[in-house]
Hints:
Elements: E1 4-7, H1 17-26, E2 32-37, H2 49-56, E3 63-68, H3 76-82, E4 86-90, H4 97-106, E5 110-115, E6 133-137, H5 152-165, E7 171-175, H6 183-189, E8 193-196, H7 198-201, H8 206-218
Parallel strand pairs: 1-8, 2-3, 3-4, 4-5, 5-6, 6-7, 7-8
Helix pairs in contact: 2-3, 6-8
Amino acid sequence: MLIKIAPSILSADFSKLGEEVLRIERAGADLVHVDVMDGHFVPNITIGPPVVKSLKKVSKLPFDVHLMIENPDMYIESFADAGADIISVHAEACCHLHRTIQKIKLLGKKAAVALNPATSLCAVEWVLDDVDMVLLMSVNPGFGGQKYISGVTRKIEELKKIIDNRGLDIDIEVDGGIDTTNIHSVTKAGANVIVSGSTIFAAEDTAKIIQELKINSYSE
């Protein structure tokens, strides 16, 4: 299983965001994870489509845009036009989840559904045939630098079993509190796309920490 590292720019220096994205690209990141927050669905406000559009000009990496917002349908087209390659919406925020997923795919983008730590996997059971990825939050969304919620590991295992039993090809992304000490337990459980923010952006040697995350993801 190929492990992909998706640094979250929520932990980057916003005064030089373009340079930060270039830094992780040169350091071996596989995706750019963009946390979009509206101050309603989660208690924080971050960035919108214009920033994604600007950053897309400086990086060739796929942009993994995580919409932690109310009424995501209102903004999906704007983020798609801005350059998002993967768009994640929260099951908790969508009244008509299947319709929202189809809207993303009709725009030519990969569709993902995100679940908060306390949300059951039942919330995605009837859309798994239509998504490219499921994003499991391993912290309560809104802020970076939180501690990994250990109970999410079992949730990853259960999701992986469901996907395998149905013969589906779906990425499992996990976001929150993952570092070099616990990444192996997360990937061993079945995740293959790892979001990491403060661990990467606070490191003195970005390439080294990304390499360590990848190495540790395959070994005890």
